[in-house]
What does this fold into?
Amino acid sequence: MNESLSPKRKVYGVLLQGFIFLCTGITVALLVGLLGYIFYQGLGHISWKLLSTARSALEDTIGILPNIIYTLYIIFTTLLIAIPIGVGAAIYLNEYVVNKRFVQIIEFAAETLSGIPSIIFGLVGYMFFCQKLKLGSSILAGSLTLSIMILPTIIRTTQETLKTVPNTYREGSFALGATKWYMIRTILIPSSLDGILSGAILSIGRIVGESAALIFTAGTGYVLVKNYFEALQTSGGSLSVALYVYVYEHGEFGVGFAIASILMLIVFTVNVATKAVKKKI
Amino acid sequence: MKIRVMLEKVMNVILCLSGVTAIAAVFVISLYMLINGVPAIQKVGLVPFLFGQTWRSTGSNPEYGILPFLLTSVYGTFGACLVGVPIGLMTSVFLAKIANSKIAGVVTGAVELLAGIPSVVYGLIGMLVLVPNIRTIFHLKTGTTLFSAIIVLTIMILPSIINVSVTALKAVPKEYEEASYALGATKIETIFKVSIPAAKSGIAAGIVLGIGRAVGEAMAVMMVAGNVANMPSFFKSVTFLTTAIAKEMAYAPNGSLQKQALYSIALVLFIFIMVINMVLNILLKGRKEK
Amino acid sequence: MDIIKTRKLNLYYGTFQALKGIDMDIAEKEITAFIGPSGCGKSTFLKTLNRMIHMVPGVKITGEVSYRGKDILSNTIDETNLRKNIGMVFQKPNPFPMSIYDNIAYGPKLHGNTNKAQLNDLVEKSLRGAALWDEVKDRLKKSASGLSGGQQQRLCIARALSVSPDVLLMDEPTSALDPASTMKIEELMIELKKDYTVVIVTHNMQQATRISDKTAFFLVGELIEMGKTDDVFSLPKDKRTEDYITGRFG
It folds into this structure.
């Protein structure tokens, strides 16, 4: 009875436990190391000049203001396209479709989309939006491509919140004589705002980090144009794309790390915001 | 009254259109992949295309064999899993079974951030930290190797593996674990002999998701692998399926066999990913039905 | 001989006291039944005997519990060995998601037995001991989840027997089963008491009268009365016991 655990079992336990801690340690250390390195190398290179000017070949200076603005344009345009479609799709799935098979097909399509690598999106976006629809290499073409890419995220997060809206709300609205669309507009959409918001935030993270899908569709342009509508038709590189171009094609590592630091700050903000919204839900 | 009925009908159509957008997108993507990917394969021949060991897309006597890319993608992914799966799985065990909620929260946050790091940032750090160090440590001519790519991919697939495995491990019924404890098993024995086997289909799903991520990754790999069409070898510069496309897309002339061949590579990659997705779906469904 | 003894056993979940000063002696090779309304502490008490209760966060225990003279509340006790000696069968059948064979072999392997021939013998012996051998001998390699609820529960009993325990704790083992399966398990328990000490928590008073030698009645964390089953049911000493067994509450 007082004989304790056999040595073999003891060793087994200690070794495996050690292995678990070691692996978790590696995971955490990787993150800390990566973040530390990025900020250590990057923060020093962030200057007001870098942030507030455009790249100039004449003066041989680098500025990322156009890339910042183009990133914002791409985020805005992509969400503008994807949110109505994604929310619409979620509502359609949750409120309209009676045929279970059809729901499954749409959900399967959304899952498939989310598994397709971004380079394929880039390629098809290039063929379809840039060439077929003759949009050329432009912010609009890039945003359209990204909209398809983030659609599954928006559909999923919206669907999740729609499912939490109690049926009594719907019944209550119908009992007052509301039509279906009226009920959706006044009851469902307001109560699923948090889900839509969290989908939008997640998508921003994805858009900001995206490069492969944008490089073929929105291009690598760095010339600032006058306004949003003009920008839609011109080639514009997002921050991630600019990072790639500066580092891989020009060997400008300092600028690369400066952009990487900005990207990580955005990623960090996105993560915190997602958590905050999720808590609210 | 009439306007209302109209509105109702219009909205119905609009919502239905939104609903089928995803289907349409998948359809269009598949269609484009096929239409644009098949011609070059027809011209080159399926076997020489898939199993040809030489890719020389420019020059007077071009050859379009993608075996180097195919094998590199397979080896690279396999290598990333070899290291990434144990680390990822053990981290998920820690998160799901060992850590208290406070520590688990911190580690989960770390994993989420890791997932959020853009691939170009991985590429940047790979270029600056991995590549030169690998070059000096192993006395190579160049540090842009399959090995560097494997390390980058390993880190990139960790979050996918961890997230899905944690969910699967947490879903293991408490009763299984209780039964194991009641037979005199220790915590570690219970985790490794009951919890992990019981969560195996979910863990497999996480691994497959990671495989999908590794196979599809382009930019980070592009920046560290050297992009030479060598047959895969640990310490040589190599080209993956994804980077083979990305590298030449910008300057391959429209309508040329070269560009068509790039689309064919994309088709191969696409089929690859579709198969992976299918496996993933089966694994996840299997778990739900239980 | 008394195999398990408790003295002044108090148990707290946080600030809530779930067991209040329990003194009990459990005799060897008998069936002892715990009865009482839901939440009376009988399951908690049962789980204290093999320290399964220690897995609940925030549990605090005072008093004494001894098994064959050894203090099992001590921090130095080897939990794995204790649980090998004091086996447990749960309310809901909980076979592992493995084959029938692997379910039974799990425990012996755990405790260091890897000899194939010995394992085969043990599996057969345990399944026979749980009166399941004839039903499953042709499909030992099949998944345990294909068995009926009653068979699964007997499999769990066999699994508990596989590590040759001394005591078997059963936490409402038949509450999830149909009457026919319940009967089988009750017969099995009477069979088991030849070799094992059995402690069973039950909601079903008829079950207690049918199978147990001793009965303990719990109420809101207290042991109200314990004695020979016949005595407790025919001549309860305490008014509250009488009220419970005559169905006036619970």
